[in-house]
Each structure stands twice: as structure tokens, then as C-alpha cells.
Amino acid sequence: MNLVLTCKGHLCLLVDGEKRMRIKNHLKMLTAASLLALSFPMTSAFAALPVGAKAPDFKLEAALAGKETTFSLQQALQKGPVVLYFFPAAFSAGCTLEAHAFAEATDDFKKEGATVIGVTAGNTDQIEKFSKLECRDKFTVAADPGAKVAAEYKSTMEMKGKTLSDRTSYVIAPDGKILLSYTDKNPESHIQKTLDAVKKYRQANPA
């Protein structure tokens, strides 16, 4: 095996060539996401809905594996808890990272009986392509033009004069109550937070 030392800032790893390329691409995307945040100041318009609040019902046009579909929160909750994550825009650097991470963890969520749904108010005309390329056919992503649903969830932000969906994740119990409300600009932190909340719910409510 041909091992290569790869470094980024203070982080150095000894990895094989293939893994080096994956790490290099991953770090590039993280850097791009950081630069985007610095270049375009973002201001959250509201504080997110709190734990224990009733999740507003909604139905949105969506895409799964590149095909048009419709997502209904009410119908999804009949199957179990729902992981609802809002993100600013399809194909932006941070949102692409988050989609990859949720795609990789989709099977873990399914084991706990949870449904993952991503919702965005940005680049809504590209969600079919985004669902296939970045969500990797693993979960549904929905379009929220004008951030109307995001506003009901108090998950909007202003960027360059536009109202977009903020990076906020919710875990919603089958009875519609919010189990987790989490807002953080770090796209990758949302996956573990939501998965932990789903597991905690499942431990208390075995299938």
C-alpha cells in the first residue's frame, strides 16, 4: 500500500492514495463553506421552535432519486419519528456536505424507524438533480419557495437581501411534538445530534 502524508493546517494524516483524495476533496468543501459564510453575512431571523412545541404540518413538492414526489409530514409521522432538516440552498458547499453526511447515515436512521427529509428555500429548481447527485438517492429533499414552511418553523435567515431557510434540524415524534431543535452553521454536526435524539426516543418507545 502506498501511504502518503497529507496535511491541512495542524492536521496531518498518513493515508493511502485513494483516501488522500477523499480527504483532500472533503477539506476543500469545508474551506469553501467557511469562505462562503465569511463572504455573505447571514442573520437568523427567528429563534427556532423549542422542544415540546407542536410541529406545524406541511406538504411540499419534493424529489427522491431524481424523481418528482410529494412529501407530507402527517403521512411520514404515521411511520415513526421524522428528522426534518432545513438547509439554505441546494448545491452550496455546506449544504452539499450535509447532504452527503445524511445520505451516509440514512440506514442508521432507518434502523430506528425514522424518516429523513431535507427542506430548502434556495435553488429550489434544482432539487431533483440535488436529490440524486448529493442526497445519493437515499432520502427525500423538498422545495420551500419563499421559505414559507421554514418561517412556520422559525428557521429562516437573511442573506444578501433574500430570505432563505436556516441550517436548523428538528426531530419530530409521531404525535407531532418536537423532540430536538438544533441550529448550527456547522453542517456536519446535525447528523449526530439528530441520530442521538432518534435513538433516545426509540429506547423510550420500542417498536
Question: Could you walk me through the main structural features you see in this protein, from its secondary elements to its overall organization?
Answer:
The chain contains 6 helices and 12 strands. The model is unreliable at 1-15, 19-24 and 26-42 (pLDDT under 50). It is an alpha+beta fold and 207 residues long. The protein has 2 domains: 3-39, no CATH class; 43-204, Glutaredoxin (3-Layer(aba) Sandwich). The protein has a 7-stranded mixed β-sheet with strand order 5-4-8-7-6-11-12. Its EC number is 1.11.1.24. Residues 1-47 form the signal peptide. Keywords: Antioxidant, Disulfide bond, Oxidoreductase, Peroxidase, Redox-active center, Signal.
List key phrases describing it.
single chain; 207 residues; alpha+beta; Glutaredoxin; three-stranded antiparallel β-sheet; 6 helices; 36% helix; disordered N terminus; Peroxiredoxin_BCP/PrxQ; redox-active center; AhpC/TSA; peroxidase; signal
Total number of helices: 6
Largest sheet entry: 7 strands, mixed
Gross geometry: globular
Question: In terms of quaternary structure, what is this?
Answer: single chain
The CATH homologous superfamily of the largest domain is called Glutaredoxin
Order of helices and strands: EEHEEEHEHEHEHEEEEH
Instruction: For the record, give the distance between the C-alpha atoms at the N and C termini, rounded to a whole number.
Output: 45 Å
User: Could you tell me the strand content as a percent range?
Assistant: 25-35%
Whole-number tally of structural domains: 2
Q: At the first level of CATH, what is the class of the largest domain?
A: Alpha Beta
CATH topology of the largest domain: Glutaredoxin
Briefly note the structural class of the backbone. alpha+beta
- The tally of beta strands, per DSSP, is 12
Fraction of residues in helix: 25-40%
Mean pLDDT, to the nearest integer, reads: 85
